[in-house]
Design brief:
CATH topology of chain A: Four Helix Bundle (Hemerythrin (Met), subunit A)
Largest interface: A-B, 24 and 32 residues
Strand content of chain A: under 5%
Helix content of chain A: over 70%
Number of domains of chain A: 1
Order of helices and strands of chain B: HHHHEEHHHEHHHEEHHH
Number of helices of chain B: 13
Largest sheet of chain B: 3 strands, antiparallel
Helix content of chain B: 25-40%
CATH superfamily of chain A: Cytochrome c/b562
Number of domains of chain B: 2
Oligomer: heterodimer
Strand order of the largest sheet of chain B: 1-2-3
Number of helices of chain A: 8
Structural class of chain A: mainly alpha
Shape of chain A: elongated
Radius of gyration of chain B: 19 Å
Strand content of chain B: under 5%
Distance between the termini of chain B: 49 Å
């Protein structure tokens, strides 16, 4: 019960729906979605590594959050939104939109697979987090993200 | 193998020709007795990131960052730089298309002097400025490892460069400016771990080739090494990896180890760009080697970022 309660908190804190309502433009919105993914990864990875006690409900909620991102994310790349000063989106997204969409679908599949692995215990979860989920992040960022100077 | 290392250390930095002659002589005596260490060769292969450039791209797009098979080094990747487009050669052990016909001495000359068996200068996009630091025994283990990989035939286009750079002869001058011919020397005042890390980072790992700013001639600016710089292939930046606040001051040694192992930064973002391939290679090293790299990176002098500000050309 406690675990379910925690999962509820995680889910509402990471709510993807709340992101869309505070719309400021596609670049800002897609950054918010990526931040929601990062927050979920931040919950999942320490659990996968055993640094934080494994909590199936919390882990599953984090994966659910990520799972809801791609469908919204792919709608946020209108023509011209590669020109934004702050965007780290590579122009390659617009020249190879089909492949970019496939990468988004990969994230949906990887987060689903990782969520499914939650029920099989911490070892299976760990294998899915590093073997599937994180690999999917890298598998898109290697092509479609351009790193900009970090602010300091 | 030991004989080769011994010859190198005994002689200090003599002319390459003398050194090669002695190595060959030494090799003649030693080769029957000592076989190459393929496990070490594999380590050098992944530390050196050979596949990141020399493995064929996953699709017909020559700039596809993904690779088809990291053990098939048939080349063909294109690197688009301000100097023009470079096409990466085949270094598979195929005798015609690759380097299967090379002698040990030719391999060492390529890696340390940036000179082909035909006597042509290589462009420093091939990071011999770092590989020159490598121990000859490690280079020969690396060659032996590459010899175990699939031989692949391929035809790679010639480089497509702007005029002054098209003339390979000018590279003699470039090397005179930027290639010092020094092998790595360990520092007896530092721990074995730090020395191992320094060797991996400065030699095979060639981290400073991307994580440093370059002058207009394309030479690394020595006193700003590892402070990042504009991405030579695109619009982004390569981050400062020194312990400055504009770099990775807030990363612990364990954070660096974790990033090299998994590709996740301490803020749980993932690596992107070409660092993904680098990280996947680093993940193939031993945990001890990753820890040594992290220790050395943390020991670098703190330098403000040389990466370009966003939005500036």
């Amino acid at each position: 019960m406690k675990s379910l309660f925690k999962a509820g908190i995680v889910a509402s804190a990471l709510s993807v729906a709340s992101v869309a309502s505070a719309s400021a433009g596609p670049v800002e919105d897609r950054k918010e979605l990526m931040k929601a993914v990062v927050k979920s990864v931040k919950i999942a990875v320490p659990m996968a590594k055993g640094e934080v006690p494994f909590d199936a409900a919390v882990a599953a909620a984090a994966m659910q959050t990520i799972n809801e991102v791609p469908d919204k994310f792919v709608k946020l790349f209108p023509a011209g939104s590669d020109k934004h000063e702050k965007t780290e989106a590579s122009p390659k997204i617009w020249t190879d939109m089909k492949d970019f969409m496939a990468k988004a679908a990969d994230l949906k599949a990887a987060s689903k697979a990782t969520k499914d692995a939650v029920g099989k215990g911490q070892d299976a979860f760990k294998a899915a987090v590093f073997g599937s989920l994180v690999k999917t992040c890298k598998g898109c960022h290697d092509t479609y993200r351009i790193k900009k100077e970090k602010k300091s | 193998m030991r004989c080769v290392a011994w010859t190198g250390s005994l002689l200090g930095p003599p002319s390459m020709r003398v050194r090669l002659a002695l190595i060959l002589l030494c090799w003649g005596f030693a080769s029957s007795a000592s076989a190459a260490d393929l496990k070490n060769g594999r380590t050098m292969f992944y530390a050196g990131g050979c596949a990141s450039c020399h493995a064929a791209p996953a699709t017909s797009a020559c700039d596809n960052p993904k690779i088809k098979d990291k053990l098939t080094l048939s080349g063909g990747r294109c690197l688009k730089t301000p100097f023009g487009t470079f096409y990466v050669p085949n270094i598979s052990p195929d005798k015609e298309s690759g380097i299967g016909g090379w002698t040990n001495a030719q391999f060492i000359k390529a890696m340390k002097d940036g000179v082909s068996p035909k006597g042509e200068h290589y462009y420093p996009v091939f990071p011999y400025t770092s590989y020159q630091r490598m121990r000859e025994s490690d280079l020969l283990d690396l060659k032996a490892f590459i010899d175990t990989l699939p031989a692949a035939k391929s035809r790679v286009p010639g480089h497509d460069l702007a005029l002054p750079f098209r003339l390979r002869q000018t590279l003699g001058f470039w090397k005179w400016m930027f290639l010092d011919g020094k092998s790595f020397k360990s520092d007896p005042k530092k721990s074995a771990k730090l020395n191992r890390g320094a060797y991996l980072v400065e030699g095979p790992g060639h981290c400073g080739e991307c994580h440093s700013p370059r002058n207009p001639l394309g030479g690394v600016i020595t006193d700003k090494r590892f402070s990042g710089g504009p991405d030579p292939e695109g619009k982004g930046v390569v981050p400062n990896i020194t312990p400055h606040k504009s770099g990775i001051a807030d990363w612990s040694e364990a954070d660096i180890v974790m990033a090299l192992e998994t590709g996740l930064t301490p803020s749980f973002d993932s690596f992107g760009g070409t660092m993904v391939k680098v990280q996947e290679n680093m993940a193939e090293l031993s945990a001890k080697d990753r820890a040594a790299i992290a220790a050395y990176i943390k020991s670098l002098p703190s330098i403000p970022s040389s990466a370009r500000k966003p939005g500036k050309p």
